[in-house]
Amino acid sequence: xxxxxxxxLDINARRYECDVEPRTMLxxxxxxxxxxxxxxxxxxQGQCGACTVHVDGKRVLACLTLAxxxxxxxxxxxxxxxxxxxxxxxxxxAFLEHDAFQCGYCTPGQIMSAVACIREGRAGSDEEIREYMxxxxxxCGAYNHIVAxxxxxxxxxx
Length: 158
What we know:
Number of domains: 2
Radius of gyration: 16 Å
Strand order of the largest sheet: 2-1-5-3-4
Structural class: alpha+beta
Number of helices: 5
Strand content: 15-25%
CATH architecture of the largest domain: Roll
CATH topology of the largest domain: Ubiquitin-like (UB roll)
Low-confidence stretches: none
CATH class of the largest domain: Alpha Beta
Distance between the termini: 54 Å
Helix content: 25-40%
């Protein structure tokens, strides 16, 4: 018999309830138990950044974070960035405008890191953006477009 724990998770300003094994990672809870599939599973080892989400406003890798660790904390996924009106977040809009994606698989994690980059004041130069975003890999090589999108979104945020 597999032991489970009941979790109440605050995700994108909404309360979600689920029963998971104690060792379930946040990424698996989001995707497999709650149907929030915008957060992607890439390497599943914390090396690619595809699973980046925000917990209490800070970026974390959902594949390395136990779901039980974030109970009672505010979680934001890519689905939570869109305004209630349906308008895209400025970073999402900038990614579209600058073609900052090709296959799109890394895009949710890239966008979540970009939002944190701007929020933390780390978008002062292209070099600073590249440094901050280094933990998010793009197999298609859209890095120049990603940096341009982050730069533009940072300018809009000022």
